[in-house]
Amino acid sequence: MDTNTIIGIVVVVVIALLLILGFAWMDKSRKKAMRGSQDAAKARADARLAAEQEAARKAAEQPVHSPATEPVESSAPAHAPPTETAESTAVAQRNEPVTDESNEPSERPQYEKPEGRRGRLQKLREKLSKSSNPFGKALFSILSQDNLTEADWEDVEDTLLLADVGAEASEQLVDRLHTDARITGESDPSKVKEALRSELLNMVGTKTDRRLNADKPDAHRPSVIIMVGVNGTGKTTTAGKLARLFVAQGKSVMLGAADTFRAAAADQLETWGAKVGVPVVRSDKEGADPASVAFEASKRAKEEDVDVLIIDTAGRLQNKANLMDELGKIRRVTEKNLPVDEVLLVLDATTGQNGMAQAKVFAQAIGLTGVVLSKLDGSAKGGIVISVQRELDVPVKLVGVGEGPDDLAPFEPEAFVDGILD
Length: 422
Description:
single chain; alpha/beta; Four Helix Bundle (Hemerythrin (Met), subunit A); Rossmann fold; eight-stranded mixed β-sheet; membrane; SRP54_N_sf; hydrolase; GTP binding; SRP/SRP_N
């Protein structure tokens, strides 16, 4: 056996011994650590047991120190202040949750309850009858005279013209009254009034379907209404009032603020909607594309399956052509999501014939299904009801008779004529 072999064997034996010693040391250290851990766990257990025994001992001793075992003389004065403090603390603690609970309902939105149809029609009659100068009263005052002269008939025609009935309609009504035996044959006021009422109802139209398309059995859902009209006619206000009218009927409503050219229009709509729980779709950016707002509103109305969507539009752009193009675009993009059932023109009744030219432009540009006469609060311009229907060939469907939130009523010829005659 050579020297190298012997050296190799020695090295292997040494390494083996070192490994054996290393394992032995590690096993000893592990056992020592385990004993230490067991001792620590035992110490913690003993401490916890001692604490529990001490707590049990104190609990057992507690009745001995109860105030009930102490003399009455010493317990009353000694414990009176703490008792009063404890009671006040308890009351304060009890009051805190009660106060919070009482505040909870106030945080919930409290919506207004709009007035129903019957109350609105009654309000229409009252507002018209209380007017200082409704043209119906002026006509009755003239026609109830004895032996009407040509001058009297001229006064009748002048009264109709001043009331914005229109030249052609005024002439036609005078001819009918002139040949009515109830007026020319005698001067009985009741018969004169009956004749005048009958002729006015014929001129206004009693057989016209004045229902909003959203109220018809075959209406789409959602039923889309686009409000048009020049600025200053009360268009946005009318849109808000119309939403209240539908809410009073139990319908779900959404408003679209597509009048992005007037800074306060969207805020105004939100104020109206917040009072009756109606959501408003608007753009956060002033001057945004009105058609994009209309598109988003129709999309959301379809997704949420509301009954009615009312879209407010701008009433003034750089020129007439731009305004009409914009209205046409609003209708087209809306109809990508939903069909448009109604286009309502809001017309200021106090402008009379001056507003007719504007009305004709809207009728040609977008097509109208009905007219809303705002500010028809018994002024002498009430005759525009007759002329606007004859000129536009669409019915007056709604009338505004005041500044109150529910002063928008469905137009009924009987209520209107009775109001201007009473």
